[in-house]
Amino acid sequence: MPADLKDGRIVVVGASLAGLRAAEALREEGFTGSLTVVGDEPHAPYDRPPLSKQVLLGRATADTTELPMRRDPDAEWRLGVRATGVDLLAKQVLLEDGESLPYDRLLIATGTRARPWPNAEEAALKGVLTLRTREDGKELAEQLAAGPERVLVIGAGFTGSEIASACREMGLQVTVAERGPAPLVGALGGTLSKLAAVMQRNHGVDLRTGVTVTALNGNGSFTGAQLSDGSHVHADVCVVALGAIRNVEWLADSGLASGPRGIACDAGCRAFNMYGIVTDDIFVAGDVSRFPHPLFGYQMLSLEHWGNAVEQAEVAAHNMVSPGPLQRPHLAIPTFWSTQFGLNIKSVGVPTFSDHVVIAQGSLEARRLAMVYGYQGRITAAVTVDMAKSIDYYRHLIETAAPFPPPPGAPDRPLAADIPIPSAVPDPSVLSHGPTVALTGYLPDRRLTVV
């Protein structure tokens, strides 16, 4: 590694949100060496959240979602070419066109892709789609604009629920099939997911929970699906919203600690090798990373969040060009938001890292509330529904490890909060969509099984 960390060759693999923000931050931090950004899609970095919201509703087109550049990162962009491996010894990234890129430091920000329908023949039916890329967004928007008789959404996580919301806003009939007991249960636990189920049904969604889709039917074009309860859904568009797969396969022979949950790194974004030894020259950021967080029992956290990708990319960039004592940890509190069925849902912390919940403000009946999550007597998360201004207050309580349940004193809760009840966080294996936050040590309210 060059003596001067501000010089040399840096390669960033992944040209989406984390890769772009890291490239910009490297220049802001004074890096003057050569910078190469590799991306498997042919487009410049673009924003994904609008694809399940504005693009489907026709308020924006898929090709107008390009991310604004804060500054020109003065990088060589290698777009539309896939990285196929890393040679740690020779310090080279291998590309599918046969070229190899030498590096002094490497940032891996390859993100995730949509989990496809497992039966390839059924997945190839016309009208069966996933939603992850710009092309996906364009195709789904066109299919919905054509006015299908019914849309089937498989999976009631955030993406599936937002797609169902957009369908209803457009006046389309929609059926949602979810293996778990309610929509969003993997992200929000049992109590709030019941409200999500009520809202979907009140907005005319044909919500089927506790069922799986066993087969997609059609002869060239999708015509319907068989469900595990023996029923059949007639539909002409099917959106598969079964969560995401982390893009790590290209690292299989690299010797890095990569697997289905992502690439393990320390709190400074430095990748671990397969033996758990931290590397000095390889960094990880964004959805593909797994990192330990002291507020959540030092468990390895995997996040699929816009804000996390930005913050982690900036920490990684800083640490790539800073000597050890000046490196800083990535300790951001996970935050995400969703708008669906007329509700604004905001979350801070890790709701799945909880054993109890309490409604600290508002009420389920009013559909306006703040729910606080606790684990072993400490506040670990909060979710607000149409009460976004309260989220910063709860973020402070999480950061300071405040006791659970929270003290009384909210303007609309002068007395004590409701009685805490179990958070009813489901085992991820009962969900069809997978959580947006995964704690990959152990789940707090389940005993470790020693085999």
TrEMBL record:
<dbReference type="InterPro" id="IPR028202">
    <property type="entry name" value="Reductase_C"/>
</dbReference>
<dbReference type="InterPro" id="IPR023753">
    <property type="entry name" value="FAD/NAD-binding_dom"/>
</dbReference>
<dbReference type="InterPro" id="IPR036188">
    <property type="entry name" value="FAD/NAD-bd_sf"/>
</dbReference>
<feature type="domain" description="Reductase C-terminal">
    <location>
        <begin position="336"/>
        <end position="406"/>
    </location>
</feature>
<dbReference type="InterPro" id="IPR050446">
    <property type="entry name" value="FAD-oxidoreductase/Apoptosis"/>
</dbReference>
<keyword id="KW-0560">Oxidoreductase</keyword>
<dbReference type="Pfam" id="PF07992">
    <property type="entry name" value="Pyr_redox_2"/>
</dbReference>
<keyword id="KW-0285">Flavoprotein</keyword>
<dbReference type="InterPro" id="IPR016156">
    <property type="entry name" value="FAD/NAD-linked_Rdtase_dimer_sf"/>
</dbReference>
<protein>
    <submittedName>
        <fullName>FAD-dependent oxidoreductase</fullName>
    </submittedName>
</protein>
<keyword id="KW-0274">FAD</keyword>
<feature type="domain" description="FAD/NAD(P)-binding">
    <location>
        <begin position="9"/>
        <end position="313"/>
    </location>
</feature>
<dbReference type="Pfam" id="PF14759">
    <property type="entry name" value="Reductase_C"/>
</dbReference>
